[in-house]
């Protein structure tokens, strides 16, 4: 395919982090970008409104998980609070073998996710539910190898919403700004999540840092990101997750 400015960004990011991406996947990312921008012209899905920014802020950022040896073949993955389908759509675009589920309470965004999956020719399980309700469903609870979430809530809240979906020895992966993982700052998201992680059956295993700054005209601190990897070491108590307002009012 002719290489566009934005597909070259995706390709370059993958090269930086030793992510293998087939040529067909680059074609699919081009199609996904076109569909997102077209759909966004009549339905508000994202504030990102040009191909270059989609490539940086949605596709490359989402693909960072593939820099880690975490997504095993045919892994069962759930994207919690997926919005228009990120990071799940790019992950499935690059790794067609994974079994992907999308969970969000906003149906108009899930309609795009289903539409995009259909255009790209893959299956996707779509759940128009609140996370705290879906986590009580026995078919979904503790049935996924990996739960991912990006730009949905602060980490103490995310842990309670996401860890219940993860099976023992699986992982919850939170996409965050670099500063959110600063353990030297007692007010960072990760510092404030220690109790929640332990109570919900998790254990912090790793923090993977990556940088999107080079794709912008100027160095921007907030373009330094990380993945916070929390391993599920024991089952989540049945009392969790609580109602969303309870979680917000009194995080674990």
């Amino acid at each position: 395919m002719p290489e566009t400015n934005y597909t070259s960004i995706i390709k370059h990011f993958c090269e930086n982090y030793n992510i293998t991406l087939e040529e067909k996947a680059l074609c699919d990312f081009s199609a996904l970008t076109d569909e997102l921008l077209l759909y966004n012209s009549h339905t508000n899905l994202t504030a990102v409104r040009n191909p270059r920014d989609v490539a940086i802020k949605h596709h490359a950022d989402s693909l960072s998980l593939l820099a880690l040896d975490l997504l095993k073949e045919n892994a069962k993955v759930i994207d919690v609070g997926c919005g228009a389908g990120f990071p799940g759509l790019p992950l499935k675009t690059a790794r067609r073998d994974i079994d992907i589920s999308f969970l969000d309470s906003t149906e108009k965004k899930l309609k795009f996710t289903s539409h995009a999956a259909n255009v790209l020719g893959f299956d996707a399980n779509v759940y128009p539910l609140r996370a705290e309700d879906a986590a009580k469903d026995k078919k979904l609870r503790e049935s996924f190898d990996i739960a991912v979430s990006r730009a949905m809530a602060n980490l103490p809240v995310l842990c309670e919403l996401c860890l219940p979906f993860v099976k023992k020895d699986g992982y919850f992966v939170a996409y965050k700004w670099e500063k959110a993982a600063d353990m030297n700052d007692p007010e960072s998201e990760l510092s404030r999540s220690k109790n929640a992680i332990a109570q919900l059956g998790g254990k912090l295993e790793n923090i993977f840092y990556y940088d999107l700054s080079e794709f912008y005209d100027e160095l921007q601190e907030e373009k330094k990101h990380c993945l916070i990897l929390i391993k599920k070491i024991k089952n989540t108590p049945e009392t969790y997750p609580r109602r969303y307002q309870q979680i917000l009012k009194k995080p674990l």
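The first helix runs from residue 5 to 16. The CA atoms of residues 37 and 49 lie 6 Å apart.
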